[in-house]
Design goal:
single chain; mainly alpha; three-stranded antiparallel beta sheet
Length: 311
């Protein structure tokens, strides 16, 4: 493996990204990961590419502690894409439980159908084929290619972006949306060989999840604290746009969740009156229900009945 460029300077200027550090970052972060990585089921060899894909869908905006029980139940019921593909999409929504953002369940079902129809039931290896599956964007395609197949891709989730923002760019938080500059930096930091690149992707993600966290970074446990541009600059406070909060109580998201909970627990179509009981405010309740129907998560039937979708 060749180091791409020179090491970080000793006194970086906040917001002015120096040249990527290459091996000086790779080696300590991967060594830390070898010792401190969590033992998660989707990291086991027997999880296979489908297990990795399921985990990536579930982990979007959802903590590991909530994903674990649902993930295990999901793989026990649908160990291969074809097993899920032959079920109604509503069953995916039902099994999704309270993970939140249930459209992910429909997208995962759609991906399973496409994998079954286009790829003989095997999660494709090629990044372009992964990206062509319904419900899969750049991040998920790169993550599955890297974590399931050991390929060399820049895997940029929120945790990785925060590590790069602090360690290399010298700012506390990355932009709200991924930028071209971040993608360029991530590609420049990639190790040259596939095995190390795949390990680096997982290790930098884990570092952001466990040590370089959004609210309480633990520099004393960080393997690259001595190279961190943000720390060297005195940890200047965030000066960019306000970071988006995760509000829930009283929002349409909460109402949608309550409506879906009724439908998930039902064995037969549910009358409007049963849905009306979960939220007192009629305008917001109707808006939330209309949104669920528009998103394909709820199927309206004659006589004011509703169910999870069958098609």
């Amino acid at each position: 493996m060749t180091a791409p460029t020179k090491p970080l300077p000793n006194s970086p200027v906040p917001g002015d990204a120096p040249e990527p550090a290459g091996e000086s970052l790779h080696r300590p972060v991967i060594a830390w990961f070898d010792t401190h990585a969590r033992d998660l089921p989707w990291r086991h060899e027997d999880a296979g590419p489908w297990g990795v894909m399921v985990s990536e869908f579930m982990l979007q905006q959802t903590p590991v502690s909530r994903v674990l029980p649902v993930y295990e139940q999901w793989l026990a019921r649908w160990p291969r894409p074809a097993d899920l593909a032959k079920e109604a999409p509503g069953e995916a929504v039902r099994a999704w439980g309270r993970l939140g953002y249930p459209r992910r369940a429909l997208r995962l079902h759609g991906a399973a159908v496409a994998i079954t129809e286009r790829h003989g039931g095997d999660v494709p290896r090629q990044h372009a084929q992964l990206l062509a599956l319904p419900g899969i964007g750049e991040y998920t395609a790169a993550a599955v290619a890297s974590f399931a197949y050991g390929q060399r891709h820049a895997v940029l989730d929120t945790n990785v972006r925060r590590v790069f923002a602090r360690a290399v760019t010298g700012v506390q938080y990355p932009p709200n949306a991924t930028t071209a500059a971040e993608r360029k930096l991530a590609r420049a930091l990639l190790p040259e060989d596939e095995e190390t690149a795949s390990r680096w992707a997982a290790a930098s993600m884990e570092l952001g999840a466990l040590v370089c966290t959004a609210k309480s970074e633990n520099c004393a446990k960080c393997p690259i604290a001595g190279q961190c541009a943000w720390r060297a600059a005195g940890k200047p406070a965030h000066e960019g746009p306000a970071r988006r909060g995760q509000t829930y109580a009283g929002t349409d998201r909460q109402v949608r969740g309550k409506l879906l909970a009724v439908l998930r627990e039902a064995v037969a179509p549910v009358p409007q009156a049963a849905l009306d009981r979960v939220w007192d405010e009629p305008v917001q309740r109707a808006r939330a229900l209309d949104g669920l129907v528009a998103d394909g998560l709820v199927e309206p039937l004659p006589d004011g009945l509703y169910r999870l979708p069958l098609t």
